[in-house]
Write a structure and sequence with these properties.
By secondary structure, this protein is an alpha+beta fold. Helix content is about 25%, strand content about 20%. An eight-stranded mixed sheet has the order 1-15-21-14-3-13-11-10. A five-stranded mixed sheet has the order 18-17-19-16-20.
């Protein structure tokens, strides 16, 4: 079980405990207004680990087990579970009487269909769960039964080839939330982008491009005064942002990366009466160069651009005002495998021949100065190498994110996060899957290092293997890390996050207490 470290910048005013019932006054409480950078684009669970989907999916699709409330493993769709002496055979007894919000029953057969679907669609990937079920890699017929995964009238059974590490972390991911099989076809493909039928604590009662309204079904344990209704809003205007929405009184809760907020704004947020809770620094921010096409197939050019960009950003007074150190280690400081990597000194610049490069920018920061410092450092570094930046700025993050996934870009600034004390499942999803953060590995060596680290029993040797991965990312320079940050949970006085596992984002609203 992961230990939770919560840095409370200002203590919340109210404390609650688990509860299942709602009093009359709580049923009449106003909605919790949550602001999130990404507008919803689909409700497909296969896409549920991507930012435009995860926040809604996390709340309408229940997993077998969740660790969100107080950081403890808690059965949701699973009533309970047992493990045999080998640690390889797991039985999850499915909770009786559960139904989707349209009344369809949630049975072991339905749960099995969901796991088979995701395993089928990811059979060519090397996710943590897939790695425990080797027969998935050779699965040829979707209708064929699996020896390692089956169900009866009461339970779901997994037969792993080795004892899992942090199984609940793996199967608690949003992609393994239970969806109604009516939403996917005989090959596991989602029929309609917005088909949905809630198995989770919340159901959708209203949806528009930049707003989703959820209503609680009150079927699972929750914090005292968990919100009955949640409005999830995304910024519409170019100059709007999630923090400003709270400062203007348009919202009650949001999350933002610490690097995106200057020290001055932190003071202003505190002065405005808003509260903040911070997770440890487990996020990394980087420039991603498309090493699969010209001109960044050249490793020498990527390395030269890395050195130029890091120096430019480090010397920018606007970025310095954010208070965030320029740190090129891919693994965040304090995490397993962190390495101190100096910003390289000026060297010979690898010149390109005036080639145009497509540069994608989207809102990264609530602070305009931080955003401009990063963008200017990217553009000036590209020009210094004889490249011609063709900059495209997007008002939201969806289209540039999709272009990145398609490989239709040359340069993009983006980020991801990692569990710093046990990074192996996250590293698998980053480097060995197309549904995670899609971190490139031009060296081709990282997958082998991840698998070697998973097999290694000596913790110090595992740490050195992750450090080797870290140094490989730096050396290949397709990913140029420049900052680490933590998520800041910013909220008004009516929000209490004392029962929320802030390591396990995005937010499950049943773990939030709401006292407007």
């Amino acid at each position: 079980m992961r230990r939770i470290f919560v840095l409370t910048l200002v203590l919340a005013l109210f404390f609650g405990g688990p509860a299942n019932s709602k009093g009359e006054s709580e049923m009449q409480q106003p909605p919790l207004r949550y602001w999130f950078w990404w507008p919803i684009r689909t409700l497909d669970t296969f896409e549920a680990d991507t930012p435009p989907v995860m926040q809604v999916a996390r709340n309408i699709y229940a997993p077998l087990v969740s660790e969100f409330l107080d950081g403890k493993a808690q059965g949701l769709v699973a009533e309970d579970w047992r493990v045999d002496q080998t640690g390889k055979n797991w039985t999850f007894r499915i909770r009786k009487g559960l139904v989707f919000d349209d009344g369809d029953p949630i049975t072991p057969k339905v749960v099995l269909a969901n796991f088979r679907r995701i395993l089928w669609l990811t059979r060519g990937e090397k996710l943590a769960l897939n790695a425990l079920l080797p027969e998935i890699a050779g699965w040829k017929d979707f209708k064929a039964p699996l020896q390692s995964l089956h169900a009866d009238q009461d339970s779901l059974y997994f037969h792993f080839d080795r004892r899992p590490v942090d199984l609940f972390e793996a199967i608690g991911q949003p992609i393994y939330g239970i969806a109604n099989p009516k939403c996917f076809d005989h090959q596991g493909l989602w029929k309609d982008p917005f088909c949905h039928s809630a198995s989770g604590q919340y159901r959708i009662i209203e949806r528009s491009p930049n707003r989703v309204v959820l209503r609680s079904r009150n079927i699972f344990p929750a914090a005292v005064n968990a919100p009955e209704t949640v409005e999830i809003n995304a910024p519409v205007e170019r100059d709007d942002n999630v923090v400003q929405a709270l400062r203007d009184g348009r919202g009650d809760l949001t999350v933002e990366h610490s690097f995106a907020i200057s020290r001055r704004s932190l003071r202003e947020i505190g002065d405005s009466g808003l509260k903040m809770v911070a997770e440890p620094p487990v996020r990394m921010h980087f420039m991603h160069l498309n090493a699969s096409r010209r001109p960044f197939k050249s490793k020498a050019l990527r390395q030269s651009l890395r050195d130029s960009f890091l120096r430019a950003l480090k010397s920018d007074a606007r970025y310095a005002s954010s208070g965030i150190e320029v740190d090129p280690s891919f693994i965040p400081k304090g995490g397993v495998g962190y390495a101190h990597l100096d910003v390289p000194r000026p060297g010979q610049v690898a010149k390109a021949s005036g080639e145009p490069v497509d540069v994608l920018f989207f809102p990264l920061a609530a602070e305009r100065e931080t955003q401009e410092a990063i963008e200017d450092s990217v553009v000036s570094s590209l020009k210094a190498h004889g490249l011609v930046p063709r900059v495209k700025r997007y008002p939201d993050r969806f289209e540039p994110f999709n272009r990145m996934r398609r490989g239709d870009f040359d340069v993009i600034i983006r980020g991801t996060g990692i569990l710093v004390n046990n990074p192996y499942a996250d590293l698998r999803m980053m480097f060995m899957s197309k549904i995670g953060a899609m971190i490139p590995d031009p060296s081709g060596a990282v997958a082998g290092l991840i698998e070697k680290a998973e097999r290694e029993q000596d913790s110090s040797k595992r740490s050195r293997l992750v450090e080797e991965i870290n140094r490989s990312v730096f050396e290949e320079a397709a990913i140029i890390t420049f900052a680490h940050s933590n998520l800041l949970y910013i909220h008004n006085r009516g929000v209490d996050l004392s029962h929320l596992n802030i390591f396990a984002d995005p937010i499950e609203f049943r773990a939030v207490s709401w006292n407007p």
